[in-house]
Amino acid sequence: MQLISKNSLTNKVRKTANVNAALAAATCALLGTSAVVQADEGLWEMDAALLYYGETERVTAVEGVFSAKKDFGDEHIFSTKITADSLTGASASGAVAQPNAQTYTRPSGKGQYVVAAGEVPLDDTFHDTRVQLEAQWTQPLWNDMRGSTGVHLSKEYDYLSIAVNGSLAKDFNQKNTTVSAGLSLAYDTIDPEGGRPVAFSEMVIDEGQFANEEAYQAAFDATRQTDTDDKTTVDLMFGVTQIINRRILMQFNYGLSMSDGYHTDPFKVLSVVNDQGLTQSLVHEDRPTERTRHNFYWQTKYALDSGVADISYRYATDDWDINSHTIDSRFRFNLSDNTYIQPHFRYYQQSAADFYQPFLLEDSSLPTFASADYRLGEMTAYTIGLKYGMTMPSGNEWAFRVEYYQQDPKNAGFDAPGALQQLDLYPSVKAVIAQVSYSF
Amino acid sequence: MNDAFTIEQKSDHIIGRFAAMASPCELLIETKDPLLANHLTSLAYKESQRIEQKFSRYLPNNLMANINHRMGKAVAIDDETFRLLEFANTCFELSDGMFDITSGVLRKAWKFDGSDNLPTPDAVKVLMPHIGWRKVKYTQSSITLAKGMELDFGGIGKEYAVDCVAKLCAESASTTSIVVNFGGDIQVTRARHNSQPWHIGIENPEDDNSTTKVLKIVSGGLATSGDARRYLLKDGKHYSHILNPETGYPTETAARSVTVAAPHCIQAGLLATMALLKGPNAEVFLEQQDVKFWCYR
Amino acid sequence: MLKKARIILAFLISTQLVGCANLGVQPWERDLLAKEEMALDSEGIDLGLDDHIYFSKEATSGGRAFAGGGCGCN
What we know:
The complex is a heterotrimer. Chain A has helices spanning 19-31, 213-222, and strands at 3-4, 15-16, 44-55, 60-71, 77-88, 91-92, 102-105, 112-115, 122-123, 128-141, 145-156, 159-172, 177-190, 196-197, 224-225, 229-243, 248-261, 269-273, 279-284, 290-304, 307-318, 323-336, 339-350, 360-361, 379-391, 397-409, 429-439. The longest helix of chain A has 13 residues, at 19-31. In chain A, a hairpin with a 4-residue loop joins strand 3 and strand 4. Chain A is mainly beta. Chain A contains two helices and 27 strands. Chain B has two domains: 6-56 and 158-195, no CATH class; 63-152 and 225-296, ApbE-like domains (T-fold, Roll), CATH 3.10.520.10. In chain B, helix 1 runs antiparallel to helix 5. Chain B is globular, with a radius of gyration of 20 Å. In chain C, 39% of the residues are buried. Chains A and C meet through strand 3, strand 4, strand 5, strand 10 and strand 11 of A and helix 1 and helix 2 of C.
């Protein structure tokens, strides 16, 4: 803000550029406000963030998000978000470790990978880029009632998901209580490279037994289904938000989710082991075609004099017999008028799905459904993190977050035969998360 | 409920009224709850009393009296006073030295009562050494004024009080639209329920017979500078009461009154005052600042 | 059977808490609640990113928002 002027007594023309802007800034400094007293209508609020997720020796992901929100007047709000993420690295295939090296075929059928003795088999062909777009519109309807509707689209190389949602919310009791109900419908299609495997078909590994390339390909194709498959999900949510007192706000949500269609992970297998614990073959997993889930969520936010304490508890249960408890807490401490730190602690615990098995026994009959994906098994996980935020004089905010996430799969009660007793069948997964965000 | 202020219920809002800073003050509150209106009006009354007690030039033992009569010794100040001094400093710079809160001593020479009693050149000259913002020394914790110098917050006190009261009301009732109106210096805390404008009657002080002007305001602040009744008239020449601190004489060809709309009342007030100090260039200046304004000559 | 009982119990607890409709504050007591960091959707970006991570690495999703994550990550 340049102020160029000449002496008033000599009557020369003054050039004053934007005295108003300088005055506005001086006013904010005087009154101690960082922005205009009432909410800015007609301005886009934007947020951008970049996240790095890295597991030791496994998956690495980089995710970028950009979101924008605008109030078009009288609480007619439009918000949109675009996310892009890229994953590389290796992820557990579901097979068990062995006392000797093993060879696996990649899910696409093209190529193989070797796993060292004693190591958990990780499939490292896993790399994918995904783009996601969402848009949401909210506006007041009738007295004290608000409606919201939105769309959501996610696309990656072999997976497409489209969803629409709608919800209504009504305020009661001088806006101390809000009741809401929402519905979401999602349609997903999956078309993996190499096609989806036939349930429990054996992984075809080329160890020299095929006469030529075509013979191998024919054997591989025999284990594949060529069509794409899909999954539809219906979600219902009911929520109550209640102000308890001047400092405390609570939210309770109940969610019901019913999905129908292809739930199997086409990249995961199970090892078929003999009574010595040695792998005889590998078969592709199979999951049920239906899943009904119930979610109960309770969150409390407590306003401290200089910060906020936020604690939530979630209990989930479903008809795959997975029950979980999640406690998530964030404590924000304002260090000054424009900086804060926020420690974060999360604890998660889940029980195994009823069709979860870490491996199959050779002489047992095949179950209807089975998966060795550790993410469906018994496990506890915890996250510990710290976030630092600072508001610049312009009113924009930078934030930096670092977290450590560890998953500890547990034995859900399966006796390991023979050689498997000496091996770690439930290795922990350790990840570091780092994020930078900017709000403007 | 008490003598300090009154409450009046209207069809869709409540008005709280009291007197402060030599002006009729009112609070227009978009609510049907008399308890809320009572609470807010009481808050506004107490805050305007506090500011008036602290910064008024007319009281014998307050902070201003201490600062103005210390004769060259440092006086301890608090954070609020420091912020006001910083603000006055910025206004001094932005107005090329025309807005100067040490120019209040000129009232000893100039009495704007509509008569033709101009002061003698000597009467003005003797006061000039006691004027000059650059001579004021202040830090975050203290201020030192030379003997004979005085600070006068009269030009910004009312607008500052309006903004302070508005801020308190907004913090206390963040979802309620409230208009703070101290004799035409106005601040709205937030837009009304359906973004309808508030209709505020402004009396034209010049002409008691004219109908009250009705102002429509949705949000932000409004302030008026200038007073059509304070002037001197001699030999056909009109002398406005806006004094140039460098010469000690009225600004030539100043407008009679300027009203400006800006996000905050004190910001609007300063723009209006600066416009008056520009004399003939008031309109040009305000157009350059890209604000809504009304100029009367 | 036990599962159904659990669901019903969780439901009952939630609905009892809704019955506390005489809780709340007067409009002029909303100063602390109006702070940006007290909004339920403050830090929306962080929550969305975390939801995506946990959806990919765990069997449960949803609670705060709709459960259908809509991506091939799990």
